[in-house]
Predict the 3D structure of the following.
Amino acid sequence: MKIVVCIKQVPDTNEVKLDPKTGTLIRDGVPSIINHDDKNALEEAIKLKDKYQNVHITVLTMGPPQADVALREALAMGADRAILVSDRAFAGSDTWATARTIAAAVRKIGEYDLIFCGRQAIDGDTAQVGPQLAEYLNLPQVTYVKHLEINGEKVTVERALEDGYEVLETTLPCLLTTIKELNEPRYANVRGIFDAYKEKTVEMWTANDIKIAADQTGLNASPTNVKQTFTPSPKGQGTILCGCDKDTICELMCKLQEKHII
Amino acid sequence: MNFNLTKEQEMVKTLMRKFAETEVKPLAAEIDENERFPRETVEKMARYNMMGIPFPKQYGGAGGDNISYAIAVEELARVCGTTGVILSAHTSLGAHPIYQFGNEEQKNKYLKPLAEGKYLGAFGLTEPNAGTDAAGQQTLAVLENDHWVLNGSKVFITNGGESDIYIIIAMTDKKKGTRGISAFIVEKDAPGFSIGKIEHKMGIKGSSTSELIFENCIIPKENILGEVGQGFKIAMQTLDGGRIGIASQALGIAQGALDESVKYMKERKQFGKALSQFQGLQWMVADMATKVTAARWLVYNAAWRKDQKLSYANEAAMAKLYAAEVAMDVTTKAVQLHGGYGYTREYPIERMMRDAKITEIYEGTSQVQQMVIAANIFK
């Protein structure tokens, strides 16, 4: 089985601070990590490799040359091949142009049975690239996968909903987007780290390599316009009432009435 | 000259920091309190190939370098001194002598499972009457037909009772003094080998420290490490490398205490402002941070020299001497900065101070390091 896992290198939001004056992210000195949901995608692929023979995992990312580190980490976790799609022509791509670019890279990879994408990236939070990629490749897709079983060509997944989950069946090849409930990603392996740098390579593919025209990618091919970004004003601190005596309950009732909840 | 870590060393550091914070730190207080050996952590480290970082892949290792190994011990010790020494004693004392002095068969039979973390390793040199004076060995090994017979005992053996493989130093010819000492590989279930008293310690309480007893202990003839009479050299060179591990442990403990102090000083308010805003305390922390950084470069320098196949015994002794002193100094000041809370078990600082003390004692006391350094100056 040939699996492609799409990942994104993102700033570690635990380490990001907001500039209190401008409300923008301070990205200086913030470490970069593999996006959390994408790690679940990668883990699921590696679990399939642990379980079945002849599973080959290609990990793919579109990003600046620094994204090399994210791909090496993926190799150190257990991926077999790493491809970095990188070109100045891609700069400013929105989700639509990004998905189109990644689709071109996947077509160059050629053979695949299964594509995993993380649900969404912690820096953009759109959850669009995975589904759009499936559309560009004309593949069946299931989003928000929390459980997965593969039996021959048949793929059975549990898809998380807000208030439960649904069980869906599809066939290979297909694209699945993963959420953190799916698994617990493993750490990189120390031997894997040395192998990733000494024995494996990260292939660099440009716009030319994946045969995507300049007007099909980058800022000019991106229909999304960002009108404004802002930080929502913080919610006020809640009040905690403790006790089961009459006074506490009266206070609770008064507060609920004040807010027109009852 | 280049002071940057390589990309793989950076990634090892990131990995070890995350592993230590997630898997090791939550256990640190409990294993200290209960004097419990964290077997589950050893199993996890084995799964991620952390138990043989500086050994080649053909012998089950990670194919890494000694700086990466030092970083691994440092990051573990930053949150838990116990876990740091388990890895250090296993790698430097249990596995490394087989890598350096073992023959191909011994490497395949013993180094491979050690480096893969299937076995845990330990090293037995110290005896009740042969501590700093390591040449005064009383454990005897006699060759009888196709096997060696060992009689005697070892004390204060790190990972003792938990290990599968022990490197044991014993006298094979008393008349020859240090040239009459040999080294042996002893399996935990060798006939006549037993574990004696388990020590209760001031710090690193989750690590096992035990007595080893040999009563007509029989080991195969081929389990001698190196040549007959090479044991003292093997022991001394093993300790040279081990000092890099313990220096890394000391460095990690000091860094951990510094990090805890900085965090506490930002939170704790007195006289209406955070402790971090008092200049007198800032100066203390500035000195602590400077010493930790100085210790780090001594440690990495020793590890780097070992990786470059340059002489490193002197640098390892300096690193161990200084990092241990810094660990004791920084953890003591960290308790002071924490005030009354620092003296309680509510905070990890008192544990770090207890853990730090042993780094001035084991694998050569600070005074032995000074002897090594001075001998090198006045040779």
Q: What stands out?
A: The mean pLDDT of chain A is 92. The two ends of chain A are 57 Å apart (CA to CA). Chain A has one domain: 2-221.
